Amino acid sequence: MGVWEKNNDMVCVFCKSMPDSHNHLFFECDFPGKIWNEMKNLVKLDFAPNSWTDLLAYMLKKPINKSIWIILQRLVIGASIYYVWQERNLRIFQGRHRSFDEVCNLIKDTVRLRVMSLSLNTSPQVFEAASLWQFHVVQSNGRKRVQFSPWK
After folding, report:
1. Which domain holds residue 65?
2. Whole-model pTM above 0.90?
3. By C-alpha distance, which of 148, 143, 136 is closest to 121?
């Protein structure tokens, strides 16, 4: 999962000092660890585990329903994994890199675009999430739904 060194050890592309693993790549290394902590705060996953297997077990125990927080949590986890892996590949194969803010904004924008397509009944939780994620809740055909609003 990292860059092959001459001694055949896999080294993390982000810190270039630790052996690569899923746990290190997504949680332990500084760069992706900061991204994960930033994203956790946006979806009420403050106490979610910081290890690959524990996070999977934690999320599998959560109900699959239309709760805005469950939806956002699953979207954020998926987008975070995708963009950290993409950043890893950019660094390995193209020698390019993005900043912490750029990767976080890609994750946020991806989640926002997905939420834009949802039609949700309003609730205090939807209004709380809308405020945190900077969405507007608008009336549409007699039903309230979440509508996208840009960050800036």
Report:
1. 21-115
2. no
3. 143
Number of domains in the chain: 1
Quick one: 88 exposed, middle or buried, by C-beta within 10 A (0-12, 13-18, 19+)?
buried
Q: Which percentage of the chain shows pLDDT scores above 70?
A: 85
d(CA 152, CA 130): 15
Q: Which two tokens stand for residue 86?
A: 């993409």
Q: How many CB atoms lie within 10 A of CB 128?
A: 13
Task: Decide if 136 is inside a domain.
Answer: no
In angstroms, rounded to a whole number, what is the distance separating the alpha carbons of residues 74 and 29?
22
Cβ–Cβ under 8 Å, residues 125 and 69? yes
145: confidence class by pLDDT, cuts 50, 70, 90: low
Contacts of 127 by beta carbon, 8 Å cutoff, 6+ apart? 137
